[in-house]
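User: Hello! I'm new to structural biology and keep hearing that structure can be predicted from sequence alone. Could you demonstrate with Alpha-hydroxy-acid oxidizing protein? Please show me the input and the output so I can see what each looks like.

Assistant: Of course. The first part below is the input, the amino acid sequence of Alpha-hydroxy-acid oxidizing protein. The second part is the output, the predicted structure written as tokens.
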Amino acid sequence: MHDEAGHAGNWLPARRLPHVSEIAGLFERPKRGQGGRALCRSHSIADLRDRARARVPRMVFDFIDGGAGEELTLRRNARAFADVTFAPRVLRDVSVVETGRDMLGFAAELPLWLAPAGMTRAVHAHGEIGAARAAARAGVPYVLSTMASTSPEVLAAHAPDARRWFQLYLWRDRGFSREIVERARDAGFSALVLTVDVPVAGERLRDVRNGMTLPPALTRRTALNIARYPRWWFDMLTREPLGSAAVSRPGEALVDRVGRIFDPTATLRDLDWLREVWSGPIVVKGVGSVAGAVEVAERGVDALVVSNHGGRQLEHAPATLELVPAVRAAVGAGLPVFVDGGVRSGEHIAAAIAAGADAVGIGRAYLYGLAAGGERGVDRSLEILGSGLRRTMALLGAPRLDDLDATLLDPVPGCERSGSGPR
């Protein structure tokens, strides 16, 4: 018998020379992937947010990142998702996970859509076109804002494969509203998303303090910060001047533009008018209460979005995730219910669907990607969300989206904890 103390290393296998195939990878160039080396090192939306902060001027980052007032509603949206507790099922066959969902007649590959965002060419030169092209590759709809820096016609020409929805504000000039709806129809947009939570502009203090205008104005306040981002301002100076494809006055403050254009007299009756000028699906975005959801549903809309504008309008609004179960119960199973505000991961998407939503809208999540790396950055944000959703569904024992339900949540958002958890 050998002395174990004296021969402590004898159990190790004999040394050998490695085969060339085992070390070849050490000498390969790193794979850049679709998003470049830095984007491939971004493994979460938070990583993309950090990279976005480093690549665009402060006023542009705050335009993406900020909310209304002291940003209480913004934080509530995030906190509602952070407070989610799952009650996973075990011993379920999750060898195949299916994330497809029909949304307004479109077979989407993920239960999400890219929410409308104004003037995204201020974020990156690829702007709306880059975002729409990325959405097409991911198999999800893209919603073009009325306040976009790209017109419906130009987007259709450069992103023909995208499933395009058009976002509309009701303008003081109904004739203009009709005109832009007709332009969207003629450009092949398949659904209309009416935003109803901006009768007046929210007080976005970051934009006010930064002197943010669209297009961004060069002033003493902004010049020093902009100078730190030569690639950004070079793109701004050497490409087509930035402006709203619908209406723009150079150097106009955001709050002034909203006050000049948007109609504070709009009512539920305007949904009837809109149905007369648009024959396709109508989605109402900006529902912030159960009563509001019922009123909108009774007008015969095709879907609604529980939304507080990403916390950019009304302070002290409820977290959207916490409204979803009650809204779903109030409007029934037949009306598609979407939700946006605070979605940053696959876990968040799974939680929203389990709470009763059919799909989610993402805004900041893809805008961080756009700021971080243009079109490739949006690709990366969608990759992160898609892979995260598939992983979460497998870990929850839910191989299909229809398997995501309230029994996986304890407590259900907006409800008290059950104590023992759902079974």
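User: So the tokens describe the shape?

Assistant: Right, they're a compact way of writing down the 3D structure. Reading them back into a model, for example: The domain at 36-84+103-395 is CATH 3.20.20.70 (TIM Barrel).
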